[in-house]
Amino acid sequence: MTTALITGSTAGIGAAFARRLAAQGHNLVLVARDVKRLGEQATELHDRHGIEAEVLAADLSTDEGIAAVERRLGDRTHPVDLLVNNAGFGNKGRFLEVSMADELTMLKVHVEAVLRLTSAATESMRSRGRGGVVNVASVAAFVPRGTYGASKAWVVQFTQGAARDLSGTGVRLMALCPGFVRTEFHQRAGMGTDNIPNWMWLDADKLVATALDDLARGKTVSVPDPRYKALMGVVKLTPRGLLGGVSSRTGRKYGPQ
Ligand SMILES: NC(=O)c1ccc[n+]([C@@H]2O[C@H](COP(=O)([O-])OP(=O)(O)OC[C@H]3O[C@@H](n4cnc5c(N)ncnc54)[C@H](OP(=O)(O)O)[C@@H]3O)[C@@H](O)[C@H]2O)c1
Q1: In this predicted model, what pLDDT tens digit does every residue of 61-112 receive, in sequence order?
Q2: Would the N or C end of the chain have less CB density within 10 A of its end CB?
Q3: Is 148 an active-site residue?
Q4: For residue 153, what is the enclosing H or E element?
Q5: Which residues are 7's β-sheet partners?
Q6: Taking the model in full, what pTM does it have?
Q7: Superkingdom of the source (predicted)?
Q8: Catalytic residue among 148, 154, 180, 254
Q9: Does domain 3-254 match CATH 1.20.1070.10?
Q10: Which atom of ligand 1 is nearest the CA belonging to 105?
Q11: What is the DSSP string of 169-202?
């Protein structure tokens, strides 16, 4: 039986990863801040699928929280075969409207935690000759969109580079780039969603199923939906200046996170 560690497992995309992986028979290490919610999730997944679900309460915006998850990933007596770096959040507001403390917290969770946890996991995976990492980015990585988009662009670049450096070791890495997904994300950030057309919303369970297929196929970047694949094709052909204008108009209160 293999073990998957999922950060931000209790809601949205992370919870969809937990459901899918548990249904496939993987044991889980569930990471988030809310201890009560983690406990309820672990019990539910254990009872429904008969898997072992371990709980690790950690705040990935703190050094202690990141270090606790690093330690678990480095435990060679209970190896982790798949890491899903999924925990993340949005800040409402444009540049200079968001406090510096909130900007830095975002970089801690989206960049530092992803770097440190990927390193801890892959070091151990490389020595065993197998393993996988999914780093949840966003299609916002491909358009100019403040610290959020910049942090997700880092996730994509970092993951592609690390995947290349580790090719041939048996360790796979993939950046997952969703568009809008119905989760707690927008509500937590206080962002309105009324102006997002229905067709732009993705279902978290379908997204995760496609993402895991893409990982198995050896993709290093997954944009798991034909609508967003087409949109990203248009984005590639659009001059950067024009893209910045469109992104800045549509991208703060309502744009893809
Ligand atoms: N929803 C979208 O439209 C969308 C689109 C593209 C990409 N994404 C990305 O997908 C990922 C998941 O987002 P989601 O939409 O599923 O969000 P969500 O529904 O708000 O869930 C966020 C999860 O992350 C955990 N979390 C948040 N801050 C944390 C911290 N400091 N330390 C540890 N855990 C933390 C939360 O649990 P606790 O509060 O208990 O810690 C929760 O389990 C994020 O990286 C996001 O940027 C989302």
Answers
A1: 999 999 999 999 999 999 999 999 999 999 999 999 999 999 999 999 999 9
A2: N
A3: yes
A4: helix 146-165
A5: 31
A6: 0.95
A7: Bacteria
A8: 148
A9: no
A10: 31
A11: TTEEEEEE---EE-SSHHHHHT---TTS-GGGEE
